[in-house]
Design a protein that fits this description.
It contains six helices and three strands; from the N terminus they run βββαααααα. It is mostly helical and 189 residues long. The longest helix has 30 residues.
């Protein structure tokens, strides 16, 4: 398990709960994580928009699950979206842990206004993920379809806002992506 004190730590032994510091990841690791985040974000956003536009909008709750878009029906798009969401959430959790010291400094030193875009992106991601996960968990419970659909409506709208913030976030870091790629490629030639 993780403990968050003075940077990242891992439990080296579950019985003693002894903490060992994690090393700062190599540039190649950070680049790989960011590329995985980008790819899983695009897959999740595209599948989510596809579900919203082709299956949710204008159907008043009566989803046509047999309609085929790009050779995939509703069940297929839903599976792509759910898989992408799980992968994206796991990678994002790791990404946040890698940058936990930065988050801690921003919060403790009250640098929120200077970093509001990243903080808002993180909060919007968490809200979007939770409003996406809750309906899955509530499917087998005693919760009405109206409640589930209401939560999904919030998820859909938050997803659109998340896409906008993600595009802004990646565009601000485009030079980092290209420079890091060039640096990594140069190290292997």
């Amino acid at each position: 398990m993780f403990a968050l004190r003075e940077g990242l730590h891992l439990w080296s032994n579950f019985k003693t709960c002894k903490l060992i510091p994690m090393k700062k990841p190599e540039t190649k690791t950070l680049f790989s994580i960011n590329i995985l985040l980008l790819v899983s974000s695009v897959a999740t956003a595209f599948s989510g928009l596809t579900i919203m536009i082709h299956y949710h909008m204008g159907h008043q709750g009566d989803i046509s699950t047999t309609y085929i878009f790009w050779g995939i029906d509703y069940v297929g798009w839903s599976a792509i979206h759910k898989t992408g969401t799980i992968v994206l959430s796991l990678i994002m959790a790791y990404h946040i842990l890698l940058h936990w010291k930065w988050y801690k400094n921003v919060l403790l030193k009250k640098l929120l206004t200077k970093n509001r875009q990243v903080i808002l992106l993180t909060v919007i991601f968490i809200v979007t993920a939770l409003t996406g996960f809750f309906p899955w968990l509530l499917q087998s419970g005693d919760v009405s379809d109206t409640t589930r659909m209401g939560i999904l409506e919030i998820h859909d709208k938050m997803g659109i806002v998340l896409i906008v913030f993600l595009v802004l976030h990646v565009s601000k870091r485009f030079n980092w992506f290209t420079n890091t790629y060039a640096k990594l490629k140069g190290n292997h030639e």
